[in-house]
Amino acid sequence: MTPAKRFVRRLILGLLPLALLPVAAAHADQLDSVRKKGELVCGVLGTDEPNSFVDPKTRTIIGYEVDLCQAIAKRIGVKLTIKQLAVAARIPELQQGRVDLLAAALTHTREREAVIDFSLTTFVTGQRVMVRRDSGITQIAQLAGKKVVTVRGGTQEPNMRRAVPTVEVVTFETAPQALVALQQRKAVGFVNDEVSLLDAYGKLGPAQKDFVVLEQNISTEALALGLRKNEPAFKRIVDDTLRELEKRGEAERLFMQWYGPSSRLKYEKRHFRIETDKLPT
Amino acid sequence: MIELIDNYWLYFLVGQYPAGPLGGLALTLILGVAALALALPLGLVLGLARASNLRMFRWPVGALVFIVRGTPLLMVIFWAYFFLPAVTGHETSQFTTMLAALVLFNGAYLAEIVRAGIQGIPPGQTECARALGLSYRQAMFAVILPQALRNMLPSLVGQLVTTLKETSLGYIIGLSEVSFIASQINAQVITQPAEVYSILALTYFALCFGLSRAGRALEKRLSGRTSGVVPTPAAEAA
Amino acid sequence: MPFDVSIVLTGEFGRWMLQGFLLSIELTLITLALAFPLATVVALCRLSPNALLRGAGYAFVEGIRNVPLLVHFLFWYFGAPQLLPEGARNWLYEHDAEAVCAVVALTLYTAAFMAEDVRSGIRSIPAPQLEAARALGFGYLASMRLIVVPQAVRVTVPPLISQTLSLWKNTSIATVIGTAELMYQAQRVETASFRGAETFAATTLAYLVVSILITSIGELYQRRFPVRAT
Fold it and tell me: What kind of fold does domain C6-224 have according to CATH?
């Protein structure tokens, strides 16, 4: 190659990155702004053991989802800040930029795909119903015409109504508040996702003999971390962190730590893997 | 009951602090006082506009005050919660949201108190001040407002009590003020709901009743000395 | 997404909003019907020559007014029913406990405030009226009923209308105990439709319309029945 040709080639290669500059500068990348802030703000529920809940001894928020956030924050190289959210406020808070990431028992649904993005599915569960044993209810269908309670702002109410169209649903601000209503006999059933339900059941202690969690699922839910739309770099680093946790076996260890035999929930084994962010068709 | 108080008194008083954000009764007090302190300048501006001779100020402000007073506070809170970040371009915490909603809401109510306070000063005061050569603004700030503010004091104490009660609505947006904390405690303990909520009620009662008494004592002392004391309004929002 | 308020006013969402609106109105009317008589009783207690009744009235008013309405709701729904005997409790839970407890809380709260207005109204009638009635041989209750209260009504109605306005706005707080009034339904519609602006605009308008109605009734009354100088 002649010196002239070499020069022209180098010039073009050197100037090429400048062509990308306008594209990069036009949109403040979330990953960059997180790095600049030095902190990752993670929205959690804080009332949803063992995903995120207040440790009564230290009064800090801990849990399975908190640990996932911790891993992501470490990978990005910033500190983790936890923000407690109400169920109904999760998506609005993410959309308005008040949190960077949602780790709040968020179900991946097609309707939600229109407004936010999801990470790889971090948990697969269903929603079930806990009833009073003395109500004599053993099947979901028997809830027809009866009253159940659940938390406001999630998928519990619509799923319940889809499963049993004539059921009466009353919602409260937080799941614990709804559970209080069940225990006070204000309703015959309490709807929540499987994990929260089993955890609440475990916490009942001696009162467990009065309640039973019905076998049937009223829905199957893929839970994932919630991300803002159009942030490819941020989504990539979140998914990469999750994929690596899965590869190293760390993801399974976390599951066993919070959900396994030594926990209140006593899952024998994990029946999913963290590998995809697509919904089953 | 003793065991209940023994286990949870710290959580009830300060929430998760220092292991987390401040909550509980401490948060309720700070929020209430801050809201009233910030609502007062707003109420002043709105009240001056309402008492103004210029229709240009009176009517739009009158409309704003009318709308805010015809809407439940909870509605104002939801507006603030969902749309404040879009308007200001900043993230807003539950505390800030609640503060903004309370300042706007109470500012509108204070506008009326301020207006009544200003109009309660005998016109002779304004006339004298103008006769002595003071401009409208100087007359207002040096002569009228100081007297009006002193007359408004008992009403302001009443408004503080109202504001402290209003902070309880932070429960609905998940702010860890004392009512939210009490519900968390109840959800953990389960077997003593009447006790938990009675203690919560008693706490508010002690706080608000104490302040009301102080306000009434203040009113008595002031009406002994000057005229034009603004009576504490009986109509209230929750 | 462009602003389109018809989404929350038609179809299923519209139906939910309407149900909520109607329940809010029901709560207001029922509470009004119960609170006013209660308020009058309490006011008469506070004005009674009997010190025990006076104290009871005072305790009622101060005890209730100094506690936020939210706490009243939580207490009457989550706290008090647990103290009932099991039969009464189960009956309550079968019969729309959320609305019943909401009415109880609202009635007591509103009555405490109204009692003060009624008391002021009665006190505004000069003492000679009552004295003359007693001198003519009427008992305390009869004097009140036939002479003092009818005159007091004109003075009392405007503040009571103001309390009704507060009551209408206060029904929104019943959402915390699961009462399916307008605010509860608005939250439900917002979650299902992702349309916060439209939902809240419609809800705000609904509250304002009734607020304006109540205020207008008050102004009409004051124009038709101005307080006579005595």
Answer: MetI-like fold (1.10.3720)
